[in-house]
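Supplementary Methods, section 5.1.

A reviewer requested that the exact input to the structure prediction be made available. We therefore reproduce it here, unchanged from the version used in the analyses.
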Amino acid sequence: MRRLSGGRGSWMADTTISVVGSKTLLAVLGARDQHLRMIREALGVRVSARDGQIFVEGDEDAVARATDVLEQLRSQVQLYGSVTPDDVVRTLAEVRNGQPLSRAAPIAVFSNRQIRPRTPGQARYVDSIRSSDVVLCDGPAGTGKTYLAVATAVAALREERIRKIVLVRPAVEAGESLGFLPGDLQAKINPYLRPLMDALREMIDHDAIKRYTEQDLIEVIPLAYMRGRTLNEAFIILDEAQNATVSQMKMFLTRMGAGSKIVTSGDTTQVDLPPRNCSGLIDAMRRLHEIPGVATVKLTEQDIVRHPLVQEIVKAYERKPEKRHHGKPHEA
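The structure derived from this sequence is encoded token-by-token as follows.
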């Protein structure tokens, strides 16, 4: 129910949202009304709850947006059983930017936590992984490129649709030298592989990762170690693919054997290769996009699901810098 009233040139509105079940209401509100506070601060509305209902008051447009956010959160709780602060941030961003809200099916549940695409772009990415044998994905930091690919791979391993997962990264130096890092070769390359392990640890406990690694069900290796191999019934993920050269990318893509799937992902705005070397990801997306069975996906800052400031940081770096004048300073 929504009511409108005029006042000093603006329209004020209030609305009531009915929520069935105390557990659903508590999940929508968040711990200590955390979600309500986030909505109040983001949209400048007054939000309160009592007797199984949520009341929203404020500017007409803000009330409409807040109502949309709350109804989406209620639907998520009813479908998936929970809402996180990240879900609230994402939904607020989508409503404010006028984006269509993602209703993608979940990938899997790990440790009672449901993993699913959070934006329309992420949903297209996951759909491409499910339907194509080779996926080439380009997108900025925070868009879930690696995380969603690893989640899809782990789900496929649990369902026995593949026999092993191979996680690969090029050991390209981004401002520091491998030669000056302490330890043997394995110690030197471990920092490059850690982001992949971090994603795995959010889905599989430490003992299971150790067991799967010992059984060769999960392998995490540098790109150079892929040469000469053929991998059958494997889910192979190349992370930071923008730092593979053209020849390395060709070598990697041709490792795919029968029943295998390949996902390569990277951010082509952050290439750490020497200036004369073309990025293998950029080259592959140009060469292969018309081949049946190969999908190319482009994610944008609208698909960033980290802290909201990450979107603004990415936008700032994508803008052309203002021209600076290098003449003598003006003297008063």
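The first helix runs from residue 22 to 29. These observations are discussed further in the main text.
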